[in-house]
Amino acid sequence: MYIPLRFLCIATLVLLSTIGLVSIHAAQQTPAVQGDFIGTLGPLDIKLHITVAADGKLSGTLDSPNQGAIGIPCTDFRVEGQTLTFSVPAVGGTWKGTIENNGAKLSGTWNQGAPAPLTFTRDTFVAASKPSPVDGFWLGTLGGTLRIQLTVKSDQAGQQFCTSESLDQGALNLPCTNVVRSGNDFSFEIPVVNGRWSGKLSADGKTLDGTWIQGAAAPLRFERQAAPQTPTAPKPAAFDPAIAPVRAAEMQAVLGRDLEKALKSGALAPATGVGVSIGIVSNGERHVFTFGTAKADSIFEIGSISKTFTGLLLAQMVAQEKVKLDTPVRELLPLGTVAKPQGNEITLLDLVTQHSGLPRMPDNFSPADPANPYADYRAANLYQFVGKYGVARPAAAGFLYSNLGVGLLGQALANRATTSYADLVKQAVIDPLGLKDTVIKLSADQQRRFIQGHSGDPQSTPAHAWDLDVLAGAGAIRSTAGDMLTYLEANLHPEKLAAPRSTNANARTLSSALVQSHELRTDAGPGMRIGFAWLYITETGEYWHNGGTGGYSSYCFFNPKQNYAAVVLVNKTLGPSGSIADLLGQHISQRFAGKPAISLAD
Q: Domain 136-225 carries which CATH code?
């Protein structure tokens, strides 16, 4: 439903094109901070590499492995007493902190528009004296085109570690978790892309044969390498020149020019079968238009944008006093599902703001049909996982994007209303907004207009639709650009929906529920906050969310300060170059604002 690599790149370390070391200023105590350090910024793993030259000058780089950002140059290193500072110009960030324990720990604050704690500790990994049979470098090919590299190592205690790299996508040093070797069986997970590999080491120790599961399953065989392969250097982000802020009536023509190459011979060429449906509104003027194979009434899977509907559903039920934000989710589950924990427990607010501490996906998620992976994950599976995992809220639970968490929220709210999620969201949100083509289950007419989805490979292979059961609240909704635009208009102007005398309770509370769903509750990474599932970029004042399923991708935003909004629906999921929907959505926002716009040429 959603790939966090893409999700996090938009709002945090967004410029990843500059790689290398830069010599910079130094002070006398520089040797104390030389070396490799590791830290955590919200949900992101951050690595800091500091070197000292013969003349005492410091240089360094930062890695954000979760985002595939490696070797971001740091500049302006200064050591004054026990205080260290440096800058990262490529992302507009600075770090300042204290050198502790003779350089073993660097405690400080990262500032990239908003301050956030970021403490580094020296990487003290000590390799095993005798390597494990799976230690080393491994190279495989996924989908016939993408080179995937593994680096596996073990420490003196025998614990296995690994990192993964998609060499042709510039996604480097992605950390593995749950790395397990038992005899010749080997498995690991890569949480940042919601993927898992499991397989076996060959008798001669030269190959790892197994299966990669990331929504769908695919064979992935690794061969041992004497040395690591060199990644393909990522292309620098290209931008089209700024033009005057584009009015709604002009946007289709502007995008037609900006997409000319893509429509003729690129990602939207006729042979691909890919279509885009776009809805925009600015200062009350709305337009819906399409490119490629899409039609104005084509229906798409919107994926994780469904989470914002679940957020609004929660706001509706709070306004109607059916639940409270601090209601423990445990109380909305069947009696006996999970024990009451000692201390703090996960609330409905924790779930909708992605601060529950729950993992991205449950560990008992094992689809029978990888092409339709959520279809057989049912309430019994969810309750089994929750019962085992528990509902204690970690003391320092930060932002951690979780399909599981919002799916659990949707099911919990449905339990409270004694109905299904599909019926509840229809009654409380979809019908009061007058959305005729926003559904979970398609009618016969809607099925005819449900545009064929496509995989992310260069051949745009037709992809199976996704049917979600108990996790429906995380990504089950289908819609048209027109309906989604109406939804965004309601978010832009909740006051226009006020209906205090209505006999329908959902209509009466809708306006106030929309307002509540926009309230910014907590941080979601540097420069970003979160309301009821909506992400908010502090620099631009823009609320946004995106989504992706096996054959579709989506992006939407609304900007109350500037009074514009847009939605982009595409019948193709993420590919090696990322998401068409994300690029188009950002491009439209930049055109509205009169800024240089990320290029759509490729």
A: 2.40.128
Q: In the prediction, which pLDDT does 557 show?
A: 98
DSSP structural state of residue 426: I
407 half-sphere exposure, CB direction, 13 A CA radius: 30
Integer Cα distance of 215 and 375 in angstroms: 11
- Residues in Cβ contact with 130 at an 8 Å cutoff, skipping those fewer than 6 apart: none
Q: Kindly report the backbone phi and psi dihedral angles of residue 598, in degrees, each rounded to the nearest multiple of 5, phi listed first.
A: -55, 135
Q: What burial class does residue 446 get, using C-beta atoms within 10 Å of its C-beta: 0-12 exposed, 13-18 middle, 19+ buried? A: middle
**Higher-confidence position of 32 and 529:** 529
Domain with CATH 2.40.128 in the chain: 17-122, 136-225
Say how far apart CA 516 and CA 499 lie, in whole Å: 16
User: Residue 424 corresponds to which tokens in the numbers above?
Assistant: 């509840």
pTM here is 0.75
First to last CA, the chain: 24
Question: What distances in angstroms separate CA 596 from CA 68, 240, 382, 586, one per listed residue?
Answer: 24, 6, 45, 11
**The tokens of 305 are what?**
């944008």
Give the SS3 label for residue 470. coil
Sheet bearing 528-530, strands edge to edge: 285-292, 275-282, 564-570, 553-559, 542-548, 535-537, 528-530, 522-523
Q: What is the pLDDT of residues 206-237, one digit of tens each?
A: 999 999 887 567 889 999 999 988 877 666 77
Fold of 17-122: Lipocalin (2.40.128)
CA distance 410 to 352: 10
Encoded amino acid at 68, one letter: G
Distance in angstroms (rounded) separating the CA atoms of residues 545 and 304: 8
pLDDT digits (tens, 9 = 90+) for 572-586: 998 767 789 999 999
Model confidence at 8, in pLDDT bands (50, 70, 90)? Answer: very low
Q: If you search the block for the tokens 């993992």, which residue do you land on?
A: 359
Range(s) of the chain covered by CATH 3.40.710.10: 248-280+287-598
The count of other CB atoms within 10 Å of the CB of residue 369 is 13
Tell me the C-alpha distance between 401 and 552, whole Å. 20
Conformational region of residue 283, where left means phi above 0, alpha means psi within -120 to 50, and beta covers everything else: left
State the fold for domain 248-280+287-598: Beta-lactamase (3.40.710)
Name 271's Cβ contacts closer than 8 Å, sequence gap at least 6. Answer: none
